[in-house]
Each structure stands twice: as C-alpha cells, then as structure tokens.
Design brief:
By secondary structure, the protein is α/β, with parallel strands linked by helices. It is built from eight helices and seven strands; from the N terminus they run βααβαβαβαβββααα. It folds into two domains: 167 residues, Aconitase, domain 4; 30 residues, no CATH class. Helices cover 33% and strands 16% of the residues. A seven-stranded mixed β-sheet has the order 4-3-2-1-5-6-7.
Length: 203
C-alpha cells in the first residue's frame, strides 16, 4: 500500500449529504475483484448519462476538478452497503483524501485499509473548506498527516484528530497484510515448531 505522508492537490467540493456506496460505485460494477480500472465508473450515475455522455453539472466533470485528489463532502459519506469496491474506485480515480463531518463506519475503516485518508472536521470547518474548494482559481489544499493539519489555499491551517494506530499505518503504508508481515519471524518460528511437533500437518 502506498504511504500517505503529505498530499497537495486539487480539492473538489461535493456538497451532498448521505453519499452512499451505491452512488460511489453502482452494484452492476461489482463483478470484479480487481482493484484497478474502477476509477472510470466512480460516481457513475452522477457523472454520466445513460448514453455514456458526461453530465456537465457534476463537479468532477468540471475544470479544475477532473484531476481532484481530495474530496470535500457532506455529512455521512460512504453510508449504505459494505462494499470495499467503493474505496477501490475512489483510489483508482485518484482520490487520496476525503474530508467530511462524518463517515459510515465500514467505509471509514476500508479507507485506511486502502491508503485513503478520511478526515473528520466540524460543520463550521467543513463549510469553510467547501467555500475554499469552490474557488476554481485557487482549489489546491495540502494535507499533512504527520502534522495532522489541512492547509487551506490562502495558507491558514485547520487541525484534525486521527487515531494514532491508523495514522501510523498510513504513514508507513501498512494494510492488514503489511501488518501481518511485520510479524513474519514469529510466524516462521511458530510454523517451524509446529512442523516438529505435528509433522502430519505438513505431509
């Protein structure tokens, strides 16, 4: 998993509440277990008409937000069914950070497992950041995970809180497999002892 230390990028203002996982990636695109190629269908029904043409009113179809790496979103982002394809699709599109007032628990946990930083801020802070991002001439934010700070386009900073364990995992690029592999010496020692004591398991 790619490390997340500091990110500077365009932030898109997605001023909608209760964006659920079916809106992030509709169920008809869940027939793959590959994590790549899903970015082209992220927010599919919001981005495209049934004939495949773009909906010009959707924020990610507008400049300069097509290349957004940060989403500023309304309350309760990622609610709905527990599909890990949602963070896969966002990451494949290029989104590395989502800022909202709250997230659905399963989606929130899945973000950390896939290298996306979800940041929770107050309603007043969200409104400030949403207004900043709406300025098309100055939409670039910097998110510093080490310092736990969001730097607004004009230079002011907003602090955020994050669980220390999850922060360390992102800083070091550790998903569940990476965390397990940190204990590989203990795993090897256990298997060696078990092979001696119960050789029939390895026959």
């Amino acid at each position: 998993m790619e490390k997340f230390i500091q990110l500077s990028g365009v932030a898109a203002p997605l001023d909608m509440m209760n964006i659920d996982t079916d809106m992030i990636i509709p169920k008809l695109h869940l027939r793959t277990i590959k994590r790549t190629g899903l970015g082209k269908v992220v927010f599919d029904e919001l981005r495209f008409n049934t004939d495949g043409s773009e909906k010009p009113e959707f924020i990610l179809n507008q400049e300069p937000y097509r290349g957004a790496q940060i989403l500023i979103a309304g309350d309760n982002f990622g609610c709905g069914s527990s599909r890990e394809h949602a963070p896969w699709a966002l990451l494949d599109y290029g989104i590395r950070c989502i800022i909202s007032t709250s997230f659905a628990d399963i989606f929130y946990n899945n973000c950390f497992k896939n290298g996306i930083l979800p940041i929770t801020v107050s309603q007043a802070e969200l409104e400030t950041l949403m207004a900043d991002a709406a300025d098309r001439d100055h939409p670039v934010f910097t998110v510093d995970l080490e310092a736990k700070e969001i730097t607004r386009p004009q230079g002011d900073k907003i602090r955020f809180n994050i669980d220390d364990f999850r922060r360390d995992c992102l800083l070091n690029g550790l998903d569940d497999i990476g965390l397990t592999l940190q204990e590989v010496d203990k795993i090897d020692a256990f298997e060696a002892a078990q092979r001696q004591q119960q050789p029939w398991l390895y026959a």
